[in-house]
Specification:
alpha+beta, elongated
Length: about 425
C-alpha cells in the first residue's frame, strides 16, 4: 500500500524544534484530509499537524515526549480506508473470554483483595501525560474507561467522553462500592503516591524567561490603588449600547489599555527597552495581554493599541482569549510587545508583584475589585477599589518615572474623560 509522509511543518520564526505532545490518532485509525493527527508543543504555542491526505494512519515514527526538528518525518499515512468495524471488533470476544475468570474470582470471594486493583494499575501504565492530566482534571476513574486507542489505550477523547457521561447521567448506586473499596484499602495501608510528569516545552520556556528576567533586570515594584467607581458607572450606562453597536462587551481592559497609552506619552521610558548599551524608544504601543491557556500563561500582543478604539481593543482581546482557550494561538500572535498588562484579579488576586516580560521594561498588574472604606470629602465611604502594581526595570526607569506613570493611569481610570481629551 502506498503511503504519504507526514513531516514537522515550519513552526514560526526562530523555532527549530518541538516536543510531541499527544498523538490524536492511533495506527489503523481513519483520517480525513487536513484532520489533526498529532499535537506538537513549541516554546510558545501548541500546533496540531494535519494529515495531508485522507486514508489511514499507518505508522507513528516518534513517541509522545520526543523532541523533533522542523522537517523531521514523524508519521506515514496509508491510502485507503481503515479496517472495517467487523475486523476491529473481532478480537473482542476472545479478550472478554480471557478476562472473565479474573473478574469472576473477586465477585465470588466478596472481599477487597489486591486482584481488583490490577486492571486500574495496568491501565495507568498506558496513560500518556496528557491523558493523566485529563483524568485528574475531570475526576474520572481510568479503570472504568474503555480505551479506543491502539491496544486498548485510553485517549484524551475517551476521558472527556467519560466525564461528559458522568455529568449528564449519575452513576448507578451499585457502581459506588468498587472505588470506595480501593480508597479504603489505600487509606488502610497508608500508601502515598507521587507522579512525575515532564514539563511541557512551553512551561520550560516560561520558567527560563522568568528566571532570566530576575537575573538580568533590576526589578522593582511600585503600588497604588484606584477607585473604580467612574469606570463601573460608565460600563453600566453604556454596556448595552456598546454591545449592540459593536457586537462585543465593554470590559475593564479597554480602559486600562487606553490609560496606559496615555501615560506612556508622558513617561516614554516605560514603553522602551534596553538593547546592549542603548535605549530603544517606541513611538507605538504594542500591549502584551497576559491570558491563561490550558498549558500556562501566554501573552498575545495587541499591536498599535495606542491607535485603537475601545471596541477594537475589546475585540482583539476577546479573540485572543478564545484562541488561547482553543489552543490556537500562533507564534506570530505573541511576537514582539513593548508593554504588558496582567489581570490577576480574574482569579481573585488582591495584590501581587508581576515579573516583566523581557526585553520589555515594565508590566502593569491589575487585581480584584473590592469594596473598601476610603475618605471622600471628609467622610468615610465604601468604594470599589483596585490595587495596581507596576514592576519595572530600575536600570532604565527611575522611581520618579514609575510613580508618575502609575499616577497617570490612576487619574485616567478615576476620571475617564481624560481619555477623551488626552489629558
Amino acid at each position: 500500500m502506498m503511503s504519504t509522509e507526514v513531516k514537522v511543518p515550519v513552526l514560526g520564526e526562530s523555532i527549530t524544534e518541538a516536543t510531541v505532545g499527544q498523538w490524536l490518532k492511533a495506527p489503523g485509525d481513519a483520517v480525513l484530509a487536513d484532520e489533526p493527527i498529532v499535537s506538537l508543543e513549541t516554546d510558545k504555542v501548541s500546533v496540531e499537524v494535519p494529515s495531508p491526505i485522507a486514508g489511514t494512519l499507518a505508522e507513528q515514527l516518534v513517541k509522545e515526549g520526543d523532541t523533533v526538528a522542523v522537517g523531521a518525518l514523524i508519521a506515514r499515512i496509508g491510502e485507503g480506508a481503515a479496517n472495517s468495524p467487523a475486523q476491529a471488533e473481532a478480537p473482542a470476544p476472545a479478550a472478554s473470554t480471557e478476562a472473565a475468570p479474573v473478574e469472576a474470582a473477586p465477585v465470588e470471594a466478596g472481599s477487597a483483595k489486591a486482584a481488583p486493583l490490577a486492571p486500574a494499575q495496568d491501565a495507568s501504565l498506558t496513560l500518556s501525560p496528557a491523558v493523566r492530566r485529563a483524568v485528574l482534571a475531570n475526576h474520572v476513574d481510568p479503570s472504568s474507561i474503555k480505551g479506543s486507542g491502539k491496544d486498548g489505550r485510553i485517549t484524551k477523547d475517551d476521558v472527556l467522553a467519560a466525564a461528559t457521561s458522568k455529568t449528564s447521567s449519575p452513576a448507578p448506586a451499585a457502581a459506588v462500592p468498587a472505588p470506595s473499596a480501593s480508597v479504603a484499602q489505600l487509606a488502610a495501608t497508608g500508601e502515598r503516591r507521587e507522579e512525575r510528569v515532564k514539563m511541557t516545552r512551553m512551561r520550560q520556556t516560561i520558567a527560563t524567561r522568568l528566571k532570566e528576567a530576575q537575573n538580568t533586570a533590576a526589578l522593582l515594584t511600585t503600588f497604588n490603588d484606584v477607585d473604580m467607581t467612574a469606570v463601573i458607572d460608565a460600563r453600566a450606562k453604556y454596556k448595552d449600547l456598546f454591545e449592540k453597536k459593536h457586537g462585543i462587551r465593554l470590559g475593564f481592559m479597554g480602559f486600562f489599555v487606553k490609560a496606559v497609552a496615555l501615560a506612556a506619552k508622558d513617561v516614554p521610558s516605560v514603553n522602551a527597552r534596553i538593547d546592549g548599551d542603548e535605549i530603544v524608544y517606541h513611538d507605538y504601543l504594542d500591549v502584551s495581554v497576559a491570558v491563561s491557556a490550558p498549558k500556562g500563561l501566554v501573552v498575545p500582543v495587541v499591536r498599535d493599541a495606542d491607535r485603537m478604539s475601545f471596541a477594537e481593543i475589546e475585540k482583539a482581546i476577546a479573540a485572543f482569549g478564545k484562541k488561547a482557550k482553543d489552543g490556537a494561538l500562533t507564534a506570530e500572535d505573541m511576537k514582539g510587545g513593548t508593554f504588558t498588562i496582567s489581570n490577576g484579579g480574574v482569579f481573585g488576586s488582591l495584590l501581587s508583584t508581576p515579573i516583566i516580560n523581557p526585553p520589555q521594561s515594565a508590566v502593569l498588574g491589575m487585581h480584584r475589585i473590592e469594596e473598601r472604606p476610603v475618605v471622600r470629602d471628609g467622610q468615610v465611604v465604601a468604594r470599589p477599589m483596585m490595587y495596581l502594581a507596576l514592576s519595572y526595570d530600575h536600570r532604565l526607569i527611575d522611581g520618579r518615572e514609575a510613580v508618575t506613570f502609575l499616577v497617570r493611569v490612576k487619574e485616567a481610570i478615576e476620571d475617564p474623560t481624560r481619555l477623551l481629551i488626552d489629558l
